Amino acid sequence: MKVEIWSDIVCPFCYIGKRKFENALNAFDKKEQVEIVWHSYQLDPDMIPVKGQSVDQYLATKKGVSLEKGKEMNDYMSGIAKEVGLEYNFDKAIISNTMNAHRLLHLAKKKGLQNLVKEKLFAAYYTYGKDVGDTAVLVEIGESAGLNADEIRNMLQSNEYLREVRIDQLRGEQLGVQGVPFFVFNNKYAVSGAQSAEVFTNVLEKVWEEEKPLVEVTTAAGFCTADGVCN
User: Rounded CA gap, 172 and 155, in Å?
Assistant: First the structure.
């Protein structure tokens, strides 16, 4: 079984969705036969980081609300993350364009290390306050997962995988992705948002047993859109 997941590193529901899906997958007796592929989906591809801008300020500006409201929204998200064992430290998070992080994920896919690198990128951004747009940080993350540091640097200094990132984005849009995370199971069913482990379990079992055209089996919930709305 192949599970394709469209997501962005700076989408808070994407890390939560990853963990919920993994909880279902770990209880799935065919988990060793499930291939996971991460696809790039930038929520803000044209974003230019503003030095010193906090995540609360960025969210408030993007949504046109007060700084206090922006912080309140991020605090709420931290509480949801905590429910699945994740630690979100938005006070440490560094806003960054995620293009190079997605390029690193494509390199990691080539080496069979994509899922591990994805986890490390999420943790770096949400928990440890590292700049996932910084070359040194990306080299550190990739190397800790088993990638070659020089290969990462050379890739980031080139245009390698830029096309792949954009193709991922385009394919997602063609599939009807309007927010992330977005999970596609064996090109049969789609799950939109960070649904419960029970939902993922039901879909894993259903896809294993039958063949059907791609249909969305849940209503959209727990995802972030490009206009900065997280539902």
Answer: 24
Q: Which residue has the tokens 């727990």?
A: 222
Residues ≥6 apart with Cβ < 8 Å to 57:
67, 70
Residue 230: pLDDT over 90:
no
Q: What is the distance between the alpha carbons of residues 97 and 13, in angstroms, rounded to a whole number?
A: 18
Cβ-based burial of 33 (10 A; exposed 0-12, middle 13-18, buried ≥19): exposed
What tens digit of pLDDT does each residue of 91-128 get?
A: 999 999 999 999 999 999 999 999 999 999 999 999 99
Residue 5's CB is within 10 A of a number of other CB atoms, namely: 22
What residue ranges define each of the domains in the chain, with the CATH number in brackets? 2-216 (3.40.30.10)
Residue with tokens 């927010």: 179
Instruction: Please check whether residue 186 is in contact with residue 2, taking contact to mean a CB–CB distance below 8 angstroms.
Output: yes
Report how far residue 181's alpha carbon sits from residue 122's, in angstroms, rounded to the nearest whole number. Answer: 13
